[in-house]
Design brief:
300 residues, protein-cysteine S-palmitoyltransferase activity, two-stranded antiparallel ribbon, Palmitoyltransferase, two-stranded antiparallel sheet, mainly alpha, binds zinc ion, 6 strands
């Protein structure tokens, strides 16, 4: 009975772990599908625009940019999930144990600086940033590039969806920006229940609202992580107000996105090897509580 409960619990745990990934995938596919519908069916937005020669080209450019963003989101997310940032398979014993190394009792091994144990992933993670609940996996040294690129294209896709949805929404109402259209955007459910709008106008307002909220949340995440990347900090170091590994903004970007950082964000297939190994880091400032004369640079 106990083993049955144990198996049931582990199955439930596995389903719950992948649930955020499934929900996010459904959201990304739904919003992309809705925006494609807007471009293919609703656009050109004005009847006279349908006569213009550039309308098919306009649609083609929009569709191509949507497919590019959608593909990048899924590809980066897939690579993020498949690239383990943990210490599994990493040879640590040969590394010189020195300043900043600690012992993890759960993994029963010495772990390098910036490495930390994740109790959700049940393993230590190299250059651990945080455990991402939306992906159900840790963000660390090896998959930080894919995490950032995925965030970037989610932000771009949502911003694009917001602009297109709000534009179409206003034209569907054929009234411009009025108190009625603003109220519909702010309180779509109340406007539908009180019979002030049609179901079609409500649907467009609801999707536009979802995109706005999603865009604001993703913007906050993206700008926070871009700031951290420029500062050479992880989320954990930001919490503890430490910045001992900053090498200047250009080198900090290179450490996160690899040697081809200037194009690596455009496509996850572009090879961009990291200059470091996720084990040894150049220390440029003493961590709090450590005297500067005790600071060394590990391998470097
Ligand atoms: Zn551990
Ligand atoms: Zn984790």
């Amino acid at each position: 009975m106990t083993s049955f409960r144990g198996r049931l619990w582990s199955r439930l745990e596995a389903v719950c772990r992948f649930m955020p990934v499934i929900v996010n995938t459904v959201l990304v596919v739904s919003i992309t599908g809705e925006v494609m519908y807007l471009v293919m069916v609703e656009a050109p937005l004005e009847p006279e625009q349908k006569e213009r020669d550039w309308a098919p080209l306009w649609k083609g450019v929009h569709l191509a940019s949507q497919i590019f963003m959608f593909g990048n989101i899924l590809w980066n997310a897939s690579l993020f999930l498949r690239t383990s940032p943990s210490i599994r398979g990493v040879f640590l014993e040969g590394s010189a144990v020195g300043q900043g190394w600690r012992y993890c009792y759960a993994c029963e091994t010495h772990i390098p600086p910036r490495c930390s144990h994740c109790y959700d992933c049940k393993v230590c993670v190299l250059r651990k940033d945080h455990h991402c609940v939306f992906f159900g996996q840790c963000v660390g040294f090896k998959n930080y590039r894919y995490f950032l690129s995925c965030l970037l294209f989610m932000w771009a896709g949502l911003l694009y969806a917001v602009v297109l949805n709000v534009e179409v929404f206003i034209i569907i109402l054929k009234e411009g920006i009025t108190p009625h259209s603003v109220l519909l955007l702010l309180m779509p459910w109340i406007m539908l229940i009180t019979g002030q709008v049609t179901a079609r106008a409500f649907a467009f307002a609801f999707v536009a609202d979802t995109c706005v909220v999603g865009c604001l949340c993703v913007s906050a995440f993206l700008f926070f992580h871009v700031a951290l990347m420029l500062r050479g900090q992880t989320t954990r170091e930001w919490y503890s107000n430490q910045r001992p590994y900053s090498l200047g903004w250009r080198r900090n970007i290179l450490e996160c996105l690899g040697e081809r950082w200037y194009v690596a964000w455009l496509c996850p297939l572009i090879p961009s090897p990291f200059p470091g190994d996720g084990i040894h880091f150049l220390v440029t400032a003493p961590p709090s509580g450590v005297r500067s004369d005790n600071v060394n640079s590990g391998k470097n």
